[in-house]
Request: fold
Amino acid sequence: MGLIYGCPVEDVVTGLTIQCRGWKPVYHYPNNTFFLGVGPPTLDIALVQFTKWSDGMFQIFLSKYCPFIYGHNKIKLGAQMGYCVYLLWAPSSLPHLYYTIAFPLSLLHGIPLFPKERLICGSTFKAWWNLQRMWLIRRTTSFFFAFIDCIVRQLGLSQTTFTITAKVVTEDVSKRYQQEIMDFGSTSIMFIVMSTLAMLNLFSLLVWVLKMVLWGLDYKAMEMLMSQVLLCGLMVAMNAPVYEALFFRKDKGSIPASVMFKSMVLASLVCLVPLN
Reply:
């Protein structure tokens, strides 16, 4: 519970304010847990929640409470930058969207993006892998829509609204959550964006494989595009639950047919965009 209101993430701006007033933060992790919250059980609710959070935090960055302004000479530079890691979630969606779209399109049209030099770059592996998937989905949906909402609000074209995320969990949703199965089951526009990006990467990878099998590619062309093929393949692997929900799952957590149709049409249209 925050003390400064007028922002969807009042706890963050409250923490920044009292820290700038001289309060010292202490990390306290007691052996006995006293207060336990309820997390979002489905992907749709989780994305709505992260849209609200990233929108609110970007509002803080653009307001008088920006850590570099409000915290100047009050808290250390490292603390100011630490706040901005979270406050800039929304605009961080732009480079992620660029890479998610540019890689498959450049591969589809045979345009190399990388130089010839080589690039070296207590939980289950499935949980860790799902976390990477969630970061990809958040950065290309929730953070992007929060960025748009915040910019529109700063221009005076809309007012701040507080979105309440659902906390009701049904038995089948809880079962899928315990099995670490992503729950979709919504026609949200964020799912259309997510599915379109997944289909775009899948289409591009399949077209490249077909070109290589049917017509063949010379060694130089393959070498120039190999980094993009690997990255596009990684994107396809990370979006495996999306493809499963689009084409194979029949439960209530699958992606509706209307979303599948729209995403396939949008991805096909993007594939037809000439880049040469």
